[in-house]
Specification:
The complex is a heterodimer of chains A (about 180) and B (about 270). Chain A is an all-alpha fold and about 180 residues long. Helix content of chain A is about 65%, strand content about 0%. Chain A has helices at about 30-45, 55-70, 75-90, 95-105, 110-120, 125-140, 145-160, 165-180. In chain B, a hairpin with a 4-residue loop joins strand 1 and strand 2 (about 10). Classes of the chains: A mainly alpha (about 180), B mainly alpha (about 270).
Chain lengths: ~180, ~270
């Protein structure tokens, strides 16, 4: 292991490391090492047993990695990382939102709705969260609850003056359900 | 697209934001850096828990230590990471003691293996090699190799020999036709090698002894010349004292040359 991997690695990277030459060039696939370790830990430790909490910098690193996995379509790895994050620290809204989106991508709509519900206890005016929640409820087969969440999302989007790309989807869905 | 009864609805996944500072990195860089960050943190936690074992989380860290990656290069890398991390974190005394204890466990074993290997090398390496060669020579000499390679013919030969030899002959070991030849060649090769080694050793020793003898001779020559010069000077001074004249400087200079001694004056 090179000597450069020191305490500074616990800090978030700045923009000078955009090319990632200092760490990405290493031969060892450290990502696979960590993922196999997490799989091992989650297989041996019972669900719900809490491990040592992570410092914020390490939690940010894992969250960034999970988002990167979500972006690249590796949803299983993202789920593993998010489970480790939620097992190590109290559930925060960003982590729960990422988990909800990732579970939505994995097709686990019930769990995605549960994550949104947990996040809703901390953030009541997040339109993206309501939008996710509405989708999860819709695909889980709970159309009534889905319409309610999507209407809340549209209202919050309009209040905040934000027009997301999914706005028309929400509008069409709610209007279609209204016509029914 | 998903058909949900009345209409076809497409699942829209949101675009998520990364934490501050991580947005500019590509996926591979994020993966590598985040993994190293996590490993560094875990290594520091392992070091701390080795120092102060906590019963609540002892099982978790024991499972980390038992995990397959800890046993391979990744575990070693994490140990190195732990060393650098804790050294930079300035928690010097306690962590330093822990890490030294962590790494000192393997040093006596390594030294023991090394020294044991050196001590046991003649028995472990050379004795089996020479023993195997000797055993091979014996097998060749006794004709067993030929018997193993050609069991049917050797059996027939043995049966034939059994009928043709008397009891006294059968008690002596049977030799194959080429067994004594191989043995002779092997012995000759061994003698040849031994002779070359002996000659080389003697040659080197004779050179060394010649040099030593030459050195001794030169020292002896110098000593004799010095003693001769001293005797000559003493005799000359005694003679001058008897004659009552001082020796000239030319004579003194000539006296120091032992190769051309001056003829002694008659008293």
């Amino acid at each position: 292991m090179k000597k450069g991997a020191r305490f500074r690695d616990l800090l978030p990277p700045d923009h000078t490391d955009a090319l990632g030459s200092s760490t990405a060039a290493s031969d060892k696939d450290w990502g696979e090492v960590v993922l196999s370790k997490l799989r091992h830990l989650q297989s041996v430790s019972p669900a719900g047993s809490r491990r040592a909490p992570l410092p914020p910098s390490v939690a940010d690193a894992l969250l960034a990695w999970a988002v990167s996995c979500y972006e690249t379509g590796v949803h299983a790895d993202a789920n593993l990382l998010l489970l480790e994050l939620l097992n190590r620290q109290s559930a925060s809204v960003p982590v729960l939102k990422v988990q909800a989106a990732n579970l939505l991508a994995l097709g686990d709509f019930e769990s995605s709705a549960a994550s949104c519900e947990k996040a809703h206890t901390q953030a009541t005016d997040d339109p993206e969260l309501f939008f996710l929640w509405g989708q999860a409820e819709w695909f889980a087969g709970h159309q009534g609850s889905a319409q309610l969440r999507l209407r809340q999302a549209i209202t919050l989007f309009e209040q905040q003056g934000v027009q997301p790309p999914s706005y028309f989807w929400c509008r069409n869905l709610t209007s279609a359900s209204d016509q029914e | 697209m998903k058909d949900n009864g009345t209409q076809s609805i497409e699942l829209l996944l949101p675009v998520l934001k990364r934490p501050t500072g991580w947005g500019a990195l590509d996926a591979d860089a994020v993966r590598s850096r985040a993994a190293q960050t996590f490993l560094a943190f875990e290594a520091s936690m392992v070091a701390e828990h080795l120092a102060t074992p906590d019963m609540d989380s002892h099982n978790t860290w024991a499972s980390i230590a038992r995990s397959p990656d800890t046993m391979t290069g990744a575990g070693v890398a994490e140990t190195n990471l732990a060393q650098s991390y804790t050294a930079d974190a300035k928690s010097t005394e306690r962590d330093g003691a822990d890490l030294s204890r962590f790494s000192w466990g393997y040093r006596p074993v390594m030294w023991g293996v090394l020294l044991g290997g050196i001590v046991l090398a003649p028995w472990v390496v050379w004795a089996p090699v020479l023993g195997g060669l000797s055993f091979g020579l014996l097998i060749i000499q006794a004709g067993l190799l030929k018997r193993w390679l050609m069991p049917s013919s050797s059996t027939e030969e043995a049966e034939a020999d059994w009928t043709s030899y008397d009891a006294i002959t059968l008690t002596t070991p049977q030799r194959s036709r080429h067994g004594s030849g191989w043995l002779l060649v092997a012995i000759l090769v061994l003698f040849g090698v031994q002779a070359i080694m002996l000659l080389t050793t003697l040659n080197m020793k004779s050179r060394e002894s010649m040099v030593a003898i030459q050195n001794l001779q030169s020292v002896h020559r110098e000593r004799t010349s010095i003693s001769k010069r001293a005797d000559f000077k003493a005799m000359q001074s005694a003679q001058e004292r008897t004659n009552g004249s001082e020796p000239s400087s030319d004579e003194l200079e000539k006296d120091v040359r032992p190769s051309q001694p001056q003829p002694k004056t008659q008293p």
